[in-house]
Amino acid sequence: MKVTIYGIPNCGSVKKARTFFEENNIAYDFHDYKKAGIDEQHLQKWSTAFGWEKVLNKKGLTYRNLDETLKNEIVNQESAIKLMLDNTSAIKRPVIESDKGNTIGFDEKEYEGLFL
């Protein structure tokens, strides 16, 4: 099975996801989008699959610290993707792509159903 975890290494949810895969002996690739960035195609695909409102992490510190004017400009998928390209920390994490399906965020029960 091919699994790629997208996120940033110091994120608590990403750490939980990585631990889940390691404890269950599931090999994965890790894509650090803080260092390696993320392309518009991935953000388009995730926004279509999960909804841009879910991909854009409005609960996170990065989003909450944005200027109110900038936040008010986020009205659709296109504007959300532009923001996420410029501020990768505003992307909900982790995003997991695999042969068995894709998921966003950490949910151990969902992981068990999808990957075990």
Return Rg in Å. Answer: 14 Å
Mean pLDDT: 96
CATH architecture: 3-Layer(aba) Sandwich
Structural class: alpha+beta
What strand order characterises the main sheet? 2-1-3-4
Distance between the termini: 11 Å
Beta-strand residue percentage: 5-15%
Helix content: 40-55%
Total DSSP E strands: 4
Low-confidence sequence ranges: none
The CATH first-level class comes to Alpha Beta
Compute the number of helices. Answer: 7
Family: Belongs to the ArsC family.
Organism: Pedobacter alpinus
Protein name: Arsenate reductase
Written overview of the protein:
The protein has 116 residues and is an alpha+beta fold. It has one domain (3-115): Glutaredoxin (3-Layer(aba) Sandwich), CATH 3.40.30.10. The protein has helices spanning 12-23, 40-50, 52-55, 61-64, 68-72, 77-86, 108-115, and strands spanning 3-7, 29-32, 95-98, 103-104. Strand 1 (3-7), helix 1 and strand 2 (29-32) form a beta-alpha-beta unit. Helix 2 (40-50) crosses helix 6. It starts with a strand and ends with a helix. The model has no long low-confidence stretch (mean pLDDT 96). Belongs to the ArsC family. This is Arsenate reductase. It holds the Pfam family ArsC.
